[in-house]
Model the fold of this input.
Amino acid sequence: MRRLPAGRRPRLLLRAALAGLLLLLTGGLAACAGTHAAAARPGVSPADAIRNDVLRRLPAAAASVAAVWGAAAQRPVEVVVTPGPGSAGAGEPPGGSPGRPAGDVAAAFTGGPRPRLAINSAAWSTLSPIGRDVVLRHELTHLATGGASGADRNLPDWLVEGAAEWTAWRSEGWADARVAPELTRLVRAHRQPLSLASSGDLSPGASDAAAAYSSAWLAVREIVRRGSASGLVRLVRALEQHPGPVTGAALDSSLRAATGDTLAEVVRRWQLAVRRLA
Ligand SMILES: [Zn+2]
Done:
């Protein structure tokens, strides 16, 4: 979900595209889990089964994210299973949730004694195993980066969501068009985006939000291709220290320092990658 302006949600992460998810937290089933030792136990209800499934997948997902972003990804989290809209998983591709905002399924929150991962049970049930792992890696990336502290509030949303998507997908090895089916459809219909995804493009109500997430993923993928994963981490960490919203000039400067790339060059390669989807 698009982040709210700084000051409106100082301790709340909203990376989910599921409007109203916060309201659903009330009455949800909670489980405290260290991501190192979360053992799934047979549940007696669908919510328990989903929670156990999440707990079983969390250690591997956290390890994968930690390999990029550090040990913060392996902090214990609280898993909350909530009911969700029955239509959330409509049209789910067989492979999982490629291109779909992870927030349709899950959201990460802070503010309590430990970060919380809220799982939309209706959407979760529609996902393939890979799709579930991708969603968890996406949300854990937010918790491992400035999302946990609000330090990323000044970063461009395409960079925040793109970094989460890139981290989530990096180990799957899927072809671009398979990861980004909605964006591929737009490109083939001659509706390819001409600029990097805006906050509005990535917002829950945006008509092509899934394509925008894939667009952000491709942009970050191009940053990593030239600058490596460590360059991406340096970039994000540097921008988290930036006072005030990150301008294009500040982003360009930080990109050069962290990866040797320029923003114009990243955009040029991103445009080529988008066109290649056709
Ligand atoms: Zn996200």
User: Anything to note?
Assistant: The longest strand covers residues 77-82.
